[in-house]
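Lecture 7 notes: from sequence to structure.
We start with the chain below.
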Amino acid sequence: MARQHRSVRGGQNRLRIIGGQWRGRRLEFPDVPGLRPTPDRVRETLFNWLQADINGARCLDLFAGSGALGLEALSRGASRVVLVDESSAATRQLEANLQTLHTNDASIVHMPVQIFLERGSGEARYNVVFLDPPFGQGLALPTLQLLEENDWLAPGARIYIESEGQLRELPLPAGWQLLKEKRSGQVIYRLAGR
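Predicted structure tokens for the same chain:
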């Protein structure tokens, strides 16, 4: 997927919040191998799909990377977002971006997603989950299974899945259905409902 615009300071990359209270704000993210923020036009489509679901939602952004999806959700009225990523460079920049946005409605978890999900949800249940794993590592399907098996999802939850175009078939857990699906370049993005 195409990288976002580069800023001139320190080789950092930048992304733009495209809607909501922080519309137009530009935030930095580090050069981390495989980190590729969801492009603006894909995010616009996704948040059109989620228009009725995002306000007041509890969101979980897995393989958060730049935080493009979770921060966009907060900007558009999500009540709480948890961003999970194993890259220390990415999580440090996410913390800095939350300070820049002056928000306490998000938390960052520096941990591999699989380990985070295996721990179980405790009392937390999420209305919207963003899943954008590194491509070519076979992480989408086991992550979906862990979300279902370990009780992370609220009734009627919406799950966004971004994957490489070669992953044409993506079996969903029992009780889930595919609501939307589109392709953009080498990427397939889907919205499932539980």
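Points to note: The two ends are 28 Å apart (CA to CA). The helical segments are 40-49, 68-75, 88-100, 113-118, 140-149.
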